[in-house]
Amino acid sequence: MSVVKGKLMKMEVVQVGEYEFTKQDIIGHGAFAMVYKGRKRKNPSQSVAVKVVTKKGIQKASEILVKEIKILRELTALHHTNLVAMHDCMDSPAFVYVVMEDLEAIFLKQRLKQLPVENNTVSVGYSILIKFQIK
Ligand SMILES: Nc1ncnc2c1ncn2[C@@H]1O[C@H](COP(=O)(O)OP(=O)(O)OP(=O)(O)O)[C@@H](O)[C@H]1O
Fold first, then answer.
1. ipTM confidence score
2. What is the pLDDT of residues 93-109, one digit of tens each?
3. Distance of alpha carbon 53 from the chain centroid
4. ∠ at Cα 131 (127, 11), nearest 5°?
5. CB-based contacts of 45: which residues, under 8 Å, 6+ apart?
6. What pTM does this model have?
7. Ligand 1: which residues within 6 Å by Cβ?
8. Cα 29 to averaged position of ligand 1 atoms, centre (Å)
9. Which residue in 35, 62, 111, 127 has the most C-beta neighbors within 10 A?
C-alpha cells in the first residue's frame, strides 16, 4: 500500500523471474526505458535495477535491443567487477525487462566501507548523506 494524493493505493508488484519491483520505485529513465529499483523475491535485501524497455515505437531499434541483450549476457559471463551484470531478462508483448545489478547499492556499500566506523556501526546520518551525494 502507498499514499498518493491522500488516497491509499495498492502497489502493483511486477514479477520478473526471481525478481520483483513496483512502479513507484523509479531510479531513472532513458530514451526508451524506465529503470526501477527491485529486489530478489527470496532475498529482498538483494536490490536490483530493472530496466523496462517499451516496445511501442521502437520497431526499428528492436534489432539493437536484441544485440544489446546479447552483449550484456556475454559481459555478465566474464564476472568482471567493472562490468554491470545482467541477472535476468524477460520478454512480454509490450515490454522487455532487463534485471541488472543495482549500481547505487554497490557504490553505497563501497562508500560505507571507506567511512570511519565507531563501535562497528556507521552513523545513519552518514549513510543518508552518501545516498544523496550519489543521486
Ligand atoms: N544498473 C543500474 N543501477 C542503478 N541505476 C541505473 C542502472 N541502470 C540505469 N540506471 C539509472 O537509470 C537511468 C536510465 O538508464 P537507461 O539505461 O534507461 O538510460 P541511459 O543509458 O541513461 O540513456 P539512453 O538509454 O537514453 O542513452 C540512468 O541514467 C541511471 O540513473
1. 0.94
2. 889 999 999 988 877 77
3. 13
4. 110
5. 39
6. 0.78
7. 27-31, 33, 35, 49, 51, 84, 100-104
8. 6
9. 35
Q: Is 6 left (phi over 0), alpha (psi -120 to 50) or beta?
A: left
For ligand 1, the distance from its centroid to the CA atom of residue 26, given in whole angstroms, is 11
pLDDT, tens digit, 9 for 90 and up, residues 13-43: 999 999 999 999 999 998 888 999 999 999 9
The pLDDT of residue 47 is above 90: yes
C-alpha closest to that of 107 among 77, 130, 78, 75: 130
Centroid of ligand 1 to alpha carbon of 117 (angstroms): 32
Residue with the nearest Cα to atom 29 of ligand 1? 28
